[in-house]
Design a protein that fits this description.
Elements (H helix, E strand, L loop, with lengths): L1 H27 L7 E5 L8 E10 L2 E15 L3 E16 L7 E24 L2 E26 L2 E17 L17 E13 L1
Antiparallel strand pairs: 1-2, 1-8, 2-3, 3-4, 4-5, 5-6, 6-7, 7-8
Length: 203
C-alpha cells in the first residue's frame, strides 16, 4: 500500500511539473510546424519488448510518453515466460536557443513496469518427475535523468540518449530471494544506467 501511495505522489508531482513546463513553453514560443513526433526503438526487440514513443515538441523542449509491451520466452534449460507492460515518461529541456537539426537536451524521467514471470519448477518424486508452474509479479518503479541529442530532418526524426537513475523492484509471488546483483536483472534494485536509440516521423 505504501509503495502505491508513494508511486501516486511521484507521478502527480512529475505530471504537474510537465504541465507547468508545457504551459510556459506555449506562452513563450510560437507553435512548432510539425510538433507531433512518433518514434519506435528497434534495440528493445532483442529484449522481447515493443516500445512506441509519442513526443509533443516545443522550441524549448519536448514532453515524452512511452508505453511498452513485453512478450518473451527465454530459451534456457527451464521453461520461463515473461509478459507485461510499462510506461515511461519524461521531459526534454533543449540546451540550445530555438530548434535546430541537431538539438542537445537534458531532462528528468520516471517509469513503471508490471511484468509477470512464469517459471517451470521440476521436482523429482519416487514415481518420476513432477513439473509445477509458478508465476511471480514484478512491479518496477524508477526515476532519473536522460541526456541526448535529437535530430530533426523535415518529416524524419531520430533520437540518441544516455542516462541513469534509481530503480526499485517489488516482487509479488512465491519466490523469496535477494535482489539481482547485475543492473540488467529483472529484480535489480539500485542505481542503473540506460540508453536508447529511436527513429520515426514528425507530423
Amino acid at each position: 500500500m505504501k509503495t502505491k501511495i508513494t508511486l501516486a505522489i511521484v507521478a502527480f508531482l512529475f505530471v504537474g511539473t510537465l504541465v507547468a513546463q508545457t504551459n510556459h513553453a506555449e506562452k513563450r514560443f510560437s507553435t512548432v510546424e510539425k510538433p507531433n513526433h512518433l518514434l519506435f526503438s528497434p534495440l528493445y526487440f532483442f529484449d522481447g519488448t515493443f516500445m512506441l514513443t509519442y513526443e509533443r515538441l516545443f522550441p524549448s523542449g519536448a514532453i515524452r510518453i512511452t508505453p511498452s509491451i513485453k512478450l518473451q520466452n527465454l530459451s534456457d534449460d527451464s521453461y520461463s515466460q515473461r509478459e507485461g507492460w510499462g510506461l515511461d515518461a519524461g521531459y526534454k529541456f533543449f540546451l540550445t536557443n530555438g530548434l535546430r537539426k541537431a538539438n542537445f537536451y537534458m531532462g528528468p524521467y520516471t517509469l513503471f513496469k508490471n511484468i509477470n514471470v512464469k517459471n517451470a519448477i521440476t521436482y523429482h518424486e519416487i514415481d518420476g518427475k513432477v513439473t509445477q508452474y509458478q508465476t511471480d509479479r514484478y512491479n518496477i518503479v524508477g526515476f532519473g535523468v536522460d541526456t541526448g541529442i535529437k535530430f530533426i530532418f523535415g518529416r524524419f526524426t531520430m533520437d540518441i540518449s544516455l542516462g541513469g537513475g534509481i530503480r526499485y523492484a517489488y516482487i509479488e509471488g512465491y519466490t523469496y530471494k535477494n535482489s539481482g546483483s547485475e543492473w540488467y536483472d529483472i529484480d535489480y534494485k539500485g542505481i542503473i544506467p540506460r540508453g536508447n536509440f529511436s527513429f520515426g516521423v514528425a507530423f
